[in-house]
């Protein structure tokens, strides 16, 4: 079901031309500019594939191309990430049940050298950190290339309808969706070469040069050569263990935000949210805005983890927040139909007899993120496990440069924080990359120092203590 009314967003204005795609041979109406997974979900289709061994149904989970739940066969090509692949008129989509095989060809294609794009700075990731890195590297005099595997810029910002906190210079009082527009406008004013729908699959050190190998639209191989690289690949949703956690209808919180706020598709009718941090609390309000009923928020901790202002808003809506509760299992045949939760004692054990059953068709997991560091690991950056920052992160210095010279990191791939810190880190990394590339003047060091001070102020509150503790473990002088 598509959303037609929303208190903030106008989907009818931004939806593209209507086209027809075919799922298992049956015609489905879709709109240009939306992804295959969104179109299927809008048509009521929840199962996108079956697992190869036990043939269990699989559906959308992350909606940002970082898991395997939505892989399908598209126009005969298997393992297409339908959550980040745009629809095209006449497209043929099929479910995958067995181990997929590439289509047979009469004659193997001849190998040809991929085109090579050269720049001073290559930025991988078009979210808040990546866009700020590209903007500042360009302002520092660098020739910049930015690539992102999604069909649009903005990263997590494009699904954030709430207003940001902080200072005016850091977009306080501005909704995330508007910040994405502002940054994209600034990006396009500059001579920055953009490659959307382009997945970075390899990062190599080639002497003094860095080489990023990308694949555009699942078809074209491209090499990007630069003097410095900023990796701003963000994060991916965490999963928690419970019975039937693989059923269609169990989503990461970000996937639900993508459905509702980016593409105007209703995720379901009744939702249970797991996790009462800021993401879970904000998601509850966003679901309310989209006309979706939130049955409850369950939180294993003894207290709410998010800001009081968010929790108060949720409680005013009459949504119960059950602390010291956890989800035991999802129930349903081919998709979620019920969720069973129970209370925990002080030793985190389930208290018998406290089970509660919720009639829901969506279970939203707002249980945290983990940094996406695959490219950084691949190129040989030093990695350390730091729970305060969300998991495995790279060692870096105060300018966001990793242990591999010329490789920088910023945003959630450096540690899970807020979009505001991602933008400030992106600014620091972008300027640092331009300096390493030899194009920025030493005067730009003042801008790095300014951004570093702004980061210190932003992290000085009670919610920044854990992050600062983590940073002491990974930031070297």
TrEMBL record:
Q: Where in this chain does the record put each 2Fe-2S ferredoxin-type domain?
A: 17-99
What is one Pfam family matched by this protein?
A: Fer2_4
> What is the protein's species of origin?
Thermococcus sibiricus (strain DSM 12597 / MM 739)
Cross-referenced CDD domains, in alphabetical order?
A: fer2 (cd00207)
Q: Which UniProt keywords apply?
A: Oxidoreductase
The protein here is known as Dye-L-proDH alpha
SUPFAM superfamilies per record: 2Fe-2S ferredoxin-like, FAD/NAD(P)-binding domain
Q: Does the keyword Oxidoreductase apply?
A: yes
Q: What is its EC number?
A: 1.5.3.1
């Amino acid at each position: 079901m598509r959303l037609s009314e929303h208190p903030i967003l106008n989907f009818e204005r931004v939806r593209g031309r209507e086209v027809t795609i075919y799922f298992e041979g049956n015609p489905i109406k879709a709109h240009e500019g939306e992804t295959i997974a969104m179109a299927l979900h809008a048509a009521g289709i929840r199962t996108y594939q079956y697992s190869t061994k036990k043939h269990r149904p699989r559906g959308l989970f992350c909606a940002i191309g970082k898991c395997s739940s939505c892989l399908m066969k598209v126009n005969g090509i298997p393992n297409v990430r339908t959550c980040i692949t745009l629809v095209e008129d006449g497209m043929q989509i099929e479910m995958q049940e067995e181990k997929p095989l590439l289509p047979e060809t009469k004659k193997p294609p001849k190998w040809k050298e991929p085109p090579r794009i050269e720049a001073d700075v290559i930025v991988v990731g078009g979210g808040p950190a990546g866009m700020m890195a590209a903007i500042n590297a360009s302002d520092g005099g660098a020739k910049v290339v930015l690539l992102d595997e999604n069909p649009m810029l903005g990263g997590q910002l494009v699904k954030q309808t709430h207003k940001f906190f902080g200072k005016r210079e850091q977009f306080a009082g501005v909704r995330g969706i508007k910040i994405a527009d502002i940054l994209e406008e600034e990006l396009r004013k500059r001579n920055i070469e953009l490659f959307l729908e382009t997945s970075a699959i390899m990062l190599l050190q080639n002497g003094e040069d860095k080489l990023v190998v990308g694949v555009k639209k699942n078809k074209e191989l491209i090499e990007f050569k630069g003097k410095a690289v900023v990796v701003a690949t963000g994060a991916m949703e965490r999963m928690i263990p419970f019975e039937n956690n693989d059923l269609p209808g169990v989503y990461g919180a970000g996937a639900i935000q993508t459905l509702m706020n980016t593409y105007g598709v209703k995720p379901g009718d009744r939702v249970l949210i797991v996790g009462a941090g800021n993401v879970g609390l904000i998601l509850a309000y966003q679901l309310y805005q989209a006309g979706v009923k939130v049955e409850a928020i369950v939180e294993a901790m003894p207290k709410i983890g998010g800001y009081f202002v968010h929790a108060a808003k949720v409680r005013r809506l009459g949504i119960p927040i059950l602390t010291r509760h956890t989800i035991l299992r999802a129930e349903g045949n081919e998709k979620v139909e019920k969720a069973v939760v129970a209370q925990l004692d002080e030793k985190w054990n389930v208290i018998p007899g406290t089970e509660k059953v919720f009639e829901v068709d969506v279970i939203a997991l707002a249980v945290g993120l983990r940094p996406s560091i695959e490219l950084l690991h691949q190129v040989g950056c030093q990695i350390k496990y730091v729970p305060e920052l969300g998991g495995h992160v790279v060692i870096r210095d105060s300018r966001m440069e990793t242990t591999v010279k010329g490789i920088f990191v910023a945003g959630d791939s450096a540690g899970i924080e807020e979009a505001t810190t991602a933008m400030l880190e992106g600014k620091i990394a972008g300027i640092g990359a331009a300096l390493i590339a030899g194009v920025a003047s030493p005067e730009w060091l003042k801008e790095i120092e300014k951004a570093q001070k702004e980061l210190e102020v932003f992290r000085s509150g009670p919610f920044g203590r854990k992050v600062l503790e983590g940073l002491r473990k990974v930031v070297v002088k």
